[in-house]
């Protein structure tokens, strides 16, 4: 658990993060959104003390982060940033091993971890371990950056616009990988993004920053239902509201009993994508299948319409 308690950061009398308090539950994904300059990166970097707060405290599982030595913070908190995060003169394997080496892990343990992470991110260890960052595509570099942040098996992963530079297809893949890894390892993730679609897709909870203040912190559906300010409303987009609601949950969550013809939908796709498939197929219902092909039931136009309506 991360408790951010009345945290403030001032630069030369300028308040860039203003008395922010929020509690981040373990094993969840929290997404921080807000306009440029609203203090998102500063807030994130106060969690791992790359920035020292002017006042307030941050506790990790009840322990003040100022009482933790640097190596302990690095072990517990991974940090991934957009773009040039990798060391250019180190191989992929050496990049991923950065923190384990600092922590004094043995060679066998490090090698095993590098192989495990490359495999997890679908980068063949035999082909990629010895390459240098400039010999990778942007998307591959990004995945190595996240693998490096995860290498010391941190409980917490801080990510600052990690997918910003990726094209939409690779980005969707990177998001899916991240969610799969989060479920597998139970990592607590705090992620900054400008992209509201990404926020709604990934977040258990969304924190909205405006001019250094935390203006709303809640589940995605709560933000759609009860935006705290005009700014939150604008960020969500009035015309997007029903689709935002449908993008939070999966087709599997909307399954109803009953038969339906047509090509089955994967249970893992969003309800928004399921609606799109229904409209495109010109059908009022389609079957939903599990990964092994088992038919779980169906989703219906009527059911999705109900779910897209303003929550009562
Ligand atoms: N080291 C610093 N010295 C002085 N001012 C700073 C420093 N770091 C950040 N700031 C200022 O603090 C404010 C918040 O910056 P921050 O990087 O947290 O914003 P952000 O929300 O991450 O923005 P973006 O979306 O553009 O990345 C900005 O006005 C910035 O100019
Ligand atoms: Mg930033």
Tell me what you see in this structure.
It is a single chain. The protein is 39% helix and 24% strand. The chain has 14 helices and 13 strands. Helix 9 runs parallel beside helix 12 (241-248) and helix 12 crosses helix 13. The model has no long low-confidence stretch (mean pLDDT 92). The structure holds adenosine-5'-triphosphate (ATP) and magnesium ion. Adenosine-5'-triphosphate binds at residues 11, 16, 34, 36-42. Magnesium ion is lined by residues 40-41, 160.
Describe this structure in a few short sentences:
With 312 residues, the protein is of the alpha/beta class. Helix content is 39%, strand content 24%.
Describe the secondary structure blueprint for this structure.
Blueprint: E1 2-11, E2 14-24, E3 29-34, H1 40-47, E4 55-60, E5 63-64, H2 70-76, E6 77-81, H3 92-96, H4 98-102, H5 107-120, H6 125-128, H7 138-150, E7 156-160, H8 168-185, E8 188-192, H9 196-202, E9 205-210, E10 213-218, H10 220-225, H11 230-236, H12 241-248, E11 265-266, H13 271-281, E12 285-289, E13 295-300, H14 301-308
Helix pairs in contact: 9-12, 12-13
Bound molecules: adenosine-5'-triphosphate and magnesium ion (MG).
The site of adenosine-5'-triphosphate has 10 residues, from α1.
């Amino acid at each position: 658990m991360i408790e951010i308690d009345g945290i403030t950061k001032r630069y030369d009398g300028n308040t860039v993060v203003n008395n922010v308090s929020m509690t981040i539950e373990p094993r969840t994904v929290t997404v921080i959104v807000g306009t440029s300059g609203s203090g998102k990166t500063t807030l994130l970097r106060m969690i791992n003390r790359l920035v020292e707060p002017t006042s307030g405290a941050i506790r990790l599982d009840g322990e003040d982060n100022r009482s933790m030595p640097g190596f302990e913070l690095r072990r517990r908190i991974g940090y991934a940033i957009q773009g040039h995060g990798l060391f250019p003169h180190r191989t992929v394997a050496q990049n991923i091993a950065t923190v384990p080496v600092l922590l004094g892990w043995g060679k066998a343990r490090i090698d095993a971890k590098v192989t495990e992470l490359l495999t997890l991110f679908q980068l063949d260890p035999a082909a990629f371990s010895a390459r240098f960052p400039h010999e990778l595509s942007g998307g591959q570099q990004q995945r190595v950056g996240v693998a490096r942040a995860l290498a010391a098996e941190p409980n917490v992963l801080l990510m600052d616009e990690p997918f910003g530079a990726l094209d939409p297809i690779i980005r969707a893949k990177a998001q899916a990988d991240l969610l799969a890894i989060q479920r597998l390892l139970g990592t607590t993730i705090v992620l900054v993004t400008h992209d509201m679609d990404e926020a709604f897709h990934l977040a258990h909870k969304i924190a909205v920053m405006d001019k250094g203040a935390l203006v709303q912190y809640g589940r995605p559906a709560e933000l759609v239902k009860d935006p705290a300010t005009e700014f939150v409303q604008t960020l969500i987009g009035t015309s997007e509201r029903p689709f935002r609601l449908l993008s939070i949950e999966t087709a599997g969550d909307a399954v109803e009993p009953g038969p339906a013809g047509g090509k089955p939908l994967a249970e893992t796709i969003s309800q928004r994508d399921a609606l799109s498939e229904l409209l495109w197929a010109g059908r009022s219902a389609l079957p939903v299948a599990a990964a092994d092909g088992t038919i779980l039931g169906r989703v219906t136009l009527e059911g999705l319409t109900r779910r897209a309506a303003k929550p009562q």
